[in-house]
Amino acid sequence: MRSTSPELDAGELISFRTADGVDLRLRRVGPADAPAVLLVHGHGVSSEMFALPEIRNVTDALADAGYQSWLLDWRGSSRLPHNTSGRPYTFDDVALYDLPAAVAQIRERIGDRPLFVVAHCIGALALALSMTGGLLPGLAGVVAQGVFLTPKVSTSARMRVLVGSELMGSRVTHIESDFRKVGLWNRRTLLYAALSRKGDCPDPTCRMVHGGWGMGTKLFEHDHLDARTHDRLADLFGAIPLSVLPHLRQMELAHAVLRWNIDDERYSALPQNALDQADRIDCPVLLLSGSRNAAWLDSNRLCYEVLSARNPGVDVRYTEIPSYGHLDTFIGRGAALDVFGYIVDFLDETSARLA
Ligand SMILES: [Zn+2]
Fold it and tell me: What are the record keywords, sorted (predicted)?
């Protein structure tokens, strides 16, 4: 296992196993006896995206505002072995097993204190599937960054997911983000040539991160990153298992969060289409997006419009962060000033209404 930041090592570490036997972990940082916030990372990165020591990160901002953070590493974490060596999985498994198990672990320890969730990207898609399946009742409030119930990507990204899906059944099982692990000449070089867009950045790993998980679009605004963060992108990003791509493609084509395992009884708790069960969302929702989110475009604005029109009973609001892209809303050097205030205000306002 690679090293993590000292800040994370200082927190309380809880290892737990999901009902289908996958070992995950949670780390708690911030004040004791405070309202809790579960932080759910995107795919191919890890909980470290919320706790970069080189910037004022979201756990710092939450602690100062009187909230404790619970950093989950779900099965798609770049810091856990399951993502690269475990059996293939889809986001159904994250929604059915990982998120409910994490919430149960936290609730065991916080009693009846409020529990919020802040989720990014694929983490927010899985959260949408869990919540509309009624698997996470009684949350105090939810923040979804980039995407929630209505995934939408650019045409070029859609083509790249298609290319990736076509590789299923070949010997390629993962898309690496680290250029050093691929090298200049091996079997997969042609794939990377296809996936990596000719970016402006001279760092090949940065181009691969964008070409892989960014699917050819910008994952973040370069100017928003601290140089130290940019220098260790290869460490922050892990591999992407191809097993998730058909599910992702299906959802994106439908512009809706869908269950993949339709004929498998084990997954019957999950809705076939999360949007059709949006009325099961029982807490306030803040949809966040950078105005330049190239990964999910205006998915969250669309989600806001759809929910407002179809589910007037759901308390939903939308905040757009000017000039921000996707991942820089959490890993950007200025995110504490530009982004986290919206999250804290939402948590404070929702807490006040609960009191
Ligand atoms: Zn770069």
Answer: FAD, Flavoprotein, Hydrolase, Oxidoreductase
